[in-house]
Design goal:
Order of helices and strands: EHHHEEEHEHEE
Largest sheet: 4 strands, antiparallel
Structural class: alpha+beta
Distance between the termini: 26 Å
Number of strands: 7
Shape: globular
C-alpha cells in the first residue's frame, strides 16, 4: 500500500540517492546530469522550509515537495524510484497532490517538469501554459510552466 509521510531528516541521504537514480531514467548527457545535480539535491534547510513527503510502499519509492511563494504553490520535486515506474505510484501521487490542494485551499499548482516528464503531467490534468524558461545550466533544456487549477 502506498503511503505519503512527512519527509524525515534522518532519511535525507536515501532521498537524495532516490532522486539521483530516478533522474537517470531520462538519459541526460552525463555532463548536464552532473552540472545540474545541485539544483535537485535536498538538504536540511529544504526539508524544513518546503512541504516535503516521502512516498513509501513500504520502502522509500518516491519523494515529493512543494514550495509556497506568496500566493503561489509550486510542485518543486516529484521523483519516483526507477525500478518502480509504471506500477501506479505516479497515479496515486497525483491523487494525493489533488487531495493536498483541496485540503489546503490551493487554487492552483504550478510545475516546471523536465521535458521527458511533460506527458505525465498532461495525463494528470496539468495544462501547458506555453511560458518557457531556460535551464539554469547554460545551453541545456528549456522548461515549460505547467499548471493545474483547483
Amino acid at each position: 500500500m502506498i503511503e505519503f509521510k512527512k519527509a524525515q531528516l534522518t532519511n535525507l541521504s536515501d532521498i537524495n540517492a532516490l532522486i539521483e537514480g530516478s533522474r537517470s531514467v531520462w538519459n541526460y548527457p552525463e555532463e548536464y546530469a552532473k552540472a545540474s545535480l545541485h539544483l535537485i539535491t535536498m538538504d536540511e534547510k529544504t526539508l524544513n522550509s518546503e512541504i516535503c513527503y516521502e512516498i513509501r510502499n513500504p520502502e522509500l519509492v518516491g519523494f515529493l515537495s512543494f514550495e509556497k511563494r506568496e500566493d503561489e504553490v509550486f510542485l518543486e520535486n516529484l521523483w519516483i524510484k526507477k525500478s518502480t515506474l509504471k506500477q501506479g505510484i505516479g497515479a496515486a501521487t497525483s491523487k494525493f497532490i489533488d487531495q493536498l490542494a483541496n485540503e489546503n485551499g490551493w487554487s492552483k499548482i504550478q510545475v516546471f517538469p523536465d521535458p521527458p516528464a511533460e506527458g505525465f503531467y498532461l495525463k494528470c490534468g496539468y495544462i501547458n501554459t506555453g511560458n518557457k524558461f531556460p535551464s539554469r545550466i547554460q545551453g541545456r533544456p528549456t522548461f515549460t510552466l505547467f499548471e493545474k487549477a483547483y
